[in-house]
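Researcher: Let's continue the batch. This sequence belongs to Maltose/moltooligosaccharide transporter, and it's 435 residues. Same format as the previous ones, please.
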Amino acid sequence: MAIVPRIAECRPIVRVRTIDLSVGYFGLQIAFGIQSASLSRVFQGLGASVDQLAILWLAGPVTGLLVQPVVGALSDRAPTRFGRRRPYILLSALVVIAALAALPLAASLVVAVAAVWLLEAAMNALHAPYRALVADTLPPDEHARGYAMQTVFIGLGALAGACAPILLAWGGWSNVALPGQTAPSIRVAFVAAAIAVALSVGWTVARVQEPPASGAGDDKARAAMGRKAEVAALWHALRPVAVIQFFSWFGLYLLWVYATPVVAAQLYGATSPFDAAYGKGADFVGVLFGTYNGVAGVFAFLLPRLFRRFGVTRVHAAALALGAAGLSGLALLAHPAGLIGCAVLIGIAYASILSAPFVLAGRAVSSATAGMFIGVMNIFIVVPQLFAGVSMGWVIAHLLGGLAWPVLPLAGGLMAAGALLSLCLSGMDERVAAA
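Model: Same format as before. Here are the structure tokens for Maltose/moltooligosaccharide transporter:
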């Protein structure tokens, strides 16, 4: 059973709290949406080749592997008069804002990569203590609602971020990059993301009051079971979802890295990152990414009810199967409406990926280990991305003859494998229901 401070509040107040806990993700995901839809075009505009993209994207998974577990664990044990989580959130947000403003101004690939590493390190440092606020401030029976509400704001923010470049292009900002530069529309989009992070994270910091670091019941329980036993229980809860996460996030990484060159070439016939067709293709990828994130935000409202009715693992398996079809279709369909449909399917999968694993494993988490839980969960997210980043450049160069489009059906196959594995974990639903 989870060990948390008792929160005797009526449900309307809890619902308001879940919104306050989630607003910060709106700005963060605007930044992530712009980055995921535009980073490949930034790198290619500065001279990167398509087989270099996967390894250039490694900043996210590497910093996630190193930063999130450490910061998450530190925030569990670092009470200050401002709270355990708030100092990490504020400092990390300031670095995120600075990196977002600097990245589009980079005049060389080396500088751009350095800015991305700084940005990703700060975003990962912010993520663990921020997401841990759910376990800190909500009662156990509201955790699913809390994670789902965060997914709503994740989806809405990423929708706004992914669509920002094409909206700016429609507004008159050029979306075509000159050699050695980033397109003007992308520069403006990154600055807008920095402002959004400042406003949204500031809202959560101002509105959410952290509870005391631990209560008397929490201290007694920890003394009884010991730190090692608590960590062992946490690992036992996380282990069954680790492999599913591997396949899911491997597929998503391939989507983020290769959707822009694949769609620009397949749909618009682009042959260079400096021609108008590539700019149109890259902007349309922003629409696709905005679509799947928007769908994820809407579908997240339904997830708690679906989890209760059909079971978490069954719903997750169905969502991953739909995502597998969507990933494969992005490379195989050559019509805008068909690609939008694929993005809708990916959005359903993305909503479940951001919620179901936390619900399955989160019942073993106490407030005292919430930061560690988020950090360890992130290891299962970043390891597949590291593997993809290191391996896919070689695969494209030596096995696919320089072609990028087969990578997306491969991503679909990996997500389908995750769906099959999720069905094998149906017994976890009974344990979640009994917790």
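Researcher: Any comment?
Model: Residues 11-208+220-434 form a domain with the Growth Hormone; Chain: A; fold (CATH 1.20.1250.20).
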